[in-house]
Amino acid sequence: MATLQNKTVVVVGGSSGIGFGVTLAALQSLASVVIIASSNAERVAGAVAQLQAHKLPGEVRGEVVDARDAAAPSPTLRGPAATWRRDTWAAISRSRAFTTRFWGPYILAQSAKFNPGGSLTLTSGILDLKPRPGMTLPAGVSAAVAGLTSGLAVDLAPVRVNVVSPGGVNTEVWDKLQIPDEAKEHIIQEMANKLLIKRIGEPSDLAEAYIFLMKCGYITGQRINVDGGATLV
Fold it and tell me: Membrane-crossing residues (predicted)?
């Protein structure tokens, strides 16, 4: 069975939610080094401490960096300037909606250091496959990230590039909505009832998809929807 032994896994945004689930799963898959990269120093330190408390094999490190900033210093994420062609659309104004989900991965991919056999896995969404009223911009971002994945898979080859598209997931984001627990549970249950598997996802569900894409050396330019069947109903 394939593992991540002797591999270094960098999870940008790995201090919480799905990203933290991926870092934990990477350690459980015997990754030699797992690095949590985020712009929030306090959350990075807290996530590193949580992972170390599991006492799993593998080194856990944290790095404070804004992946959206091409000039940000980072010994882990930044390598020599990329030589592949930069299209004129790189000069398009970076709207707030695209800053993290699209421009962050785009900038990171241009300057990241990849070891032989390395890969890059992006995160998108499913709104471009099943749009909802009032969600045009997020749907556009999801579609853009899917297209970015295909383009990067060609430009960065033989580095493999894939994307995971989550559906509804039970993460700390729900707590930030500042709604009563009873109302939150009602919303989550309503979402679950509409899904084929009758529950929303957990970070560990999504982590399995990311780990698969890291391990499988014969997949690139592909999208995996982890949505409980949301795009089918």
Answer: none
